[in-house]
Design a protein that fits this description.
120 residues; alpha/beta; five-stranded parallel β-sheet; 4 helices; 28% helix; globular
Length: 120
Amino acid sequence: MSELSFLIINRRAPYASNQAREGLDAALTAAVFEQSVSMLFLSDGVYQLLKEQQPAAIGQKTLSANLQVLPMYDIDKLYVCAQAMAERNLSTDQLVVPVELLDKHAINALIKQQDRVLTF
């Protein structure tokens, strides 16, 4: 089986639905099958990356632990929309994992480079 490149796009806030967790599961599954996986966080998806989340108050488990194991699965290409970060007054030092900020042009180029794009 030849290696495909997958881009997992996360657009949703972390605990509003199960889509954030499904995006992480899709990324980990593709990586287990030795596919090249990148992740892109857009819109409210940037909130998935924030440190010190406390979802136990709403009966949820934090996504932070899953995000921190991504490098163990060779998922180290994590991208964030610079505009989404700016609109939410966030900086990269508030995030649980290192990311690369991309503008709209770079995001379009990234998407075009992928074999498969999955949006959550």
